[in-house]
Amino acid sequence: MSEHLNVLAIEIGERNLNNTGSLRKTADYIAWQFSRNNLFKELDEFTYQATSFANVKGQITGTVNPEKIIVIGAHYDSVVGSPGANDNGTGVAALLALAQIFKNIKSEKTIRFVAFVNEESPYFGGPGMGSHNYARRCRDQNESIEAMFSLETMGYYSDETGSQTYPPGISGYPDQGNFIAFVANLKSAGLLTETTDIFKTVGNFPYQKIAAPDSLPGVSLSDHMCFWQMGYQAVMVTDTAPFRYPFYHTADDLPDKINMAMFTELVANLAKTFALLAGSNL
Predict the structure, then answer these.
(1) Radius of gyration of the chain (CA)
(2) What's the count of helices (H) and strands (E) in the chain, helices before strands?
(3) By the 8 A CB rule, do 153 and 91 touch?
(4) Which of 3, 30, 129, 170 has the fewest CB within 10 Å, making it most exposed?
(5) C-alpha angle with apex 62: 31 to 273, nearest 5 degrees?
């Protein structure tokens, strides 16, 4: 995964319209990775404000219930002025690693790996988000998405007291930022419980979970929000981003800030969790 992080944050760098050609370079890199892992790939293109953008999809079609779909997604753009190693190079690196792990696996349900464009400002929360366009198309086609997982800023951990903060309204959680968080809205509480019940059986990675109203600050932090809006259950997997990561949205969000040992262990455990949810074993 370190190779993916270096390509994204160092070779390509800032990934948005301010860095000409960076979004297409990133989309092409992700598509190439899907292809070399023998996944069906597709550029899901759309136009917003006279500019063409593309989500990138790879898929493993289910062998028993192909109509039942699990979406694993991560946004590949970065905020203006940041190379985005953690936000969200780690999400994309995890997505690509999971695609490689699953390439020869038979799954009862269909698994989609989707890299979304335009999660960051000025698109966040509006119709220019790649995940908004993708989730809307899924709903328009009446697709049976049973679960969506948003991989969002996943690579920074600290054992220091006070390294973890929380938005207003959330209390009773650790003040050390040494865990991964599973975040859901109230309508996705069932998926949250099912996911974390599996996650805790496949390894010993520290985690916390929360199901909270969509309106609570920090809960609707990423692409999962767009799937909630379309009536799908979705869970964000995150190191909590601005509530922990001191280099969030800065020029110093570089690969050397990532705890590769913990990040690698996390992705291995997520792979086992997603496999079981999809009716497969690794």
Answers:
(1) 17
(2) 7, 8
(3) yes
(4) 3
(5) 80
- The model's pTM is 0.97
Q: Which fold has domain 2-277?
A: Aminopeptidase (3.40.630)
Average pLDDT on 22-47 reads 94
Domain ranges of the chain: 2-277
Neighbours of 173 (CB within 10 A): 15
**DSSP secondary structure, 102-162, as one string:** HTT---SEEEEEEEES--STTSTTSTT-HHHHHHHHHHHTT-EEEEEEEEES------STT
Number of residues that make up the chain: 282
- Over range 10-34, report the average pLDDT: 97
- Rounded-to-integer distance, Cα 124 and Cα 28, Å: 23
Statement: residue 282 has pLDDT above 80? no
Instruction: Tell me the C-alpha distance between 61 and 34, whole Å.
Output: 14
Confidence of residue 40 (pLDDT cuts 50, 70, 90): confident
Tokens of 215: 């309106």
Note the Cα 237 to chain centre separation in Å: 7
Q: What is the mean pLDDT of the chain?
A: 96
Q: What is the pLDDT of residue 41?
A: 80
Percent of the chain with pLDDT over 70: 100
